[in-house]
Design a protein that fits this description.
Length: 110
């Protein structure tokens, strides 16, 4: 992990890549000099991808986090209690078709 930023005339680096860093505890370097500042660090929690997300990647559905949230909302309202692969494929197809309809309507109304 390494983060570098500048403020004023000073450059700050917070890193676990320095020899003084042990057990993944970051150190602070100011203008190239190691400091005795303490850093609290906790890594982000990893969330494994959902089946819907993996299938959406395969189908080429990607527009950033907002698109993925919209797909998840769309799917949660339309998927049965125990969905199978065909159910996911149907939802992704409907979502793509709805997106195309909206894009076409926006072009026609422009």
């Amino acid at each position: 992990m390494r983060a570098t930023f500048s403020t004023g005339r000073h450059e700050y680096t917070i890193t676990t890549e320095h020899a003084a860093s042990s057990y993944g505890i970051p150190v602070i370097i100011v203008d190239g000099e190691l400091t005795d500042g303490r850093v609290q660090y906790s890594p982000d929690e990893y969330e494994p991808p959902t089946v819907l997300s993996i299938l959406a990647d395969a189908a080429g559905v990607w527009g950033g986090p907002a698109t993925r949230r919209a797909l998840a909302d769309y799917a949660s309202a339309r998927l049965p209690a125990n969905p199978g692969g065909a159910d996911y494929d149907r939802i992704i197809g409907e979502f793509l078709a709805e997106g195309k309809r909206r894009a076409t309507a926006a072009l026609e109304n422009a």
